[in-house]
Design a protein that fits this description.
rod-shaped, 2 strands, mainly alpha, Glycoprotein M6B, 6 helices
Length: 281
Amino acid sequence: MKPKIIHYRKSNTCCFECCIKCLGGVPYASLVATILCFSGVALFCGCGHVALAGTVAILEQHFSTNTSDHALLSEVIQLMQYVIYGIASFFFLYGIILLAEGFYTTSAVKELHGEFKTTACGRCISGMFVFLTYVLGVAWLGVFGFSAVPVFMFYNIWSTCEVIKSPQTNGTTGVEQICVDIRQYGIIPWNAFPGKICGSALENICNTNEFYMSYHLFIVACAGAGATVIALIHFLMILSSNWAYLKDASKMQAYQDIKAKEEQELQDIQSRSKEQLNSYT
């Protein structure tokens, strides 16, 4: 019975050490950045797609009853929805690639003396990811700023409705003089009819489900774009650090190779010297 108990404990120790070794090779920083990137892109794409559809419905029902007035805007919004599909697909693949690159660099650094060796191709790929992530980060800063524009527009409409609902304004003759002209934002032409909504009609628009959902979805989409920017900055720091580690690892490999070669040459010289000495004696 005693040998079996000892063998069982040894197997548990081996499994525990194996699990610790596996967990030590996980790039937790890249994993956190990947989850944040996926969450931000999902919020931006999902909420942005639904919010754009709600915006078109509000314009068609209240601000631009003539289809030809907002035909161009409808085409642009439809194109943006297709672009959202492409962004979601691209960042799903790109996040997985960056996570895999994190596993690669972690293994390359931690198993420097093993069978796995860093190569010039691996360092070149890491440098390419640093540059591409930098470009994407700058692009997403623009996306984040652009996504704040509809939030600003909807906030202005909502704040105007709150003014109409306020007790100081309620019951006075000036309610119908409080208006919102959507044409001033440039999304529909100046000849669009009616283009401007005032008073109680504007208050009714703010009470619709389309306005409420679109406003809050645009806010969430803007927050998702901001989370994506943070994730890309996080990725950029990780990739830069990993590239530096790989560069140092390659130098260490070259030093070890030269040292091993010199030791081998020294051993060969010593062995030849011994052979010559033995031949003389």
